[in-house]
Design goal:
Layout lengths: L3 H24 L9 H9 L5 H14 L5 H12 L1 H26 L1 H7 L2 H13 L1 H10 L5 H8 L6 H11 L1 H11 L7 H34 L5
Helix pairs in contact: 2-4, 3-4, 3-5, 4-5, 4-11, 5-9, 5-10, 5-11, 7-8, 7-9, 8-9, 8-10, 8-12
């Protein structure tokens, strides 16, 4: 934790960032453009010749302010810039935003989390993320339907080391973003039944991972520690 004076300074910076960013997004028509990826694409294209920078900032703010899921803006970026440019911009912005909110939660503590995370979500995820942070984050980042940005904040309240969190984010977060950019860029298309089956399979893997993670980890460690007989 930081000193009281530095904590107040951090709070002031956070509030200024949130208020200024929210006002900018509102006055620029961002929230009105959130109705569809096509509307977001038109919104981003209006910022030319700084469209790439504008898209990066929007993705970064989507983590810090979380007005909409990052996958929606990623799909819009795929339509506007193509799959790989949109993915690289999205991934770098999401990583930066994830590390920032994790760091702020680590420095400002529970008070920060209480102000930006709803009590319902905090109560739903806080216990499991404290007891199985690494496994839970990997599974939640890999599969859809989980509030990734909220989990980054809650992870900052745990004992999870910053370097391990960074590795988890780098390895687990890109795949859903790449999928969204691919859909937006029309690189591939999936019929609805495949998406449903993928979601069900992800849910099953998620539950099994939470239930048997400790046993699997203990088995792997025991096997690694076992020395071969001479």
């Amino acid at each position: 934790m930081v000193s009281s004076r530095k904590q107040w300074l951090l709070w002031a910076l956070v509030l200024l960032l949130a208020a200024g960013s929210g006002l900018f997004l509102y006055r620029s028509g961002f929230f009105a453009a959130c109705t569809s990826p096509e509307a977001l694409r038109a919104y981003i294209s209006r910022s030319a010749p700084y469209s790439h920078l504008s898209f990066f900032l929007l993705q970064f703010l989507s983590v810090v302010l979380a007005p909409i899921p990052s996958n929606i803006t990623a799909a819009a970026g795929g339509m506007l810039f193509g799959v790989w440019p949109a993915f690289l911009l999205t991934f770098s912005a999401i990583i930066a935003g994830s590390l920032l909110v994790f760091w702020l939660a680590r420095l400002l503590g529970q008070d920060f989390a209480d102000r930006v995370v709803s009590r319902r979500l905090s109560e739903k995820y806080q216990d499991v993320i404290r007891s199985k942070a690494s496994v839970f984050l990997v599974l939640a980042f890999l599969f859809p339907y989980f509030p990734d940005d909220v989990l980054c904040i809650l992870a900052g309240l745990t004992e999870l080391p910053f370097r391990r969190f960074l590795v988890i984010v780098l390895l687990a977060r890109p795949w859903g973003l790449l999928f969204a950019c691919g859909l937006g860029g029309a690189s591939f298309a999936c019929p609805p039944w495949i998406l449903v089956l993928a979601g069900l399979a992800g849910a099953v893997c998620f539950v099994l991972g939470l239930k048997y993670a400790d046993r699997a980890e203990a088995a792997v460690l025991a096997r690694l520690r076992r020395r071969p007989k001479p």
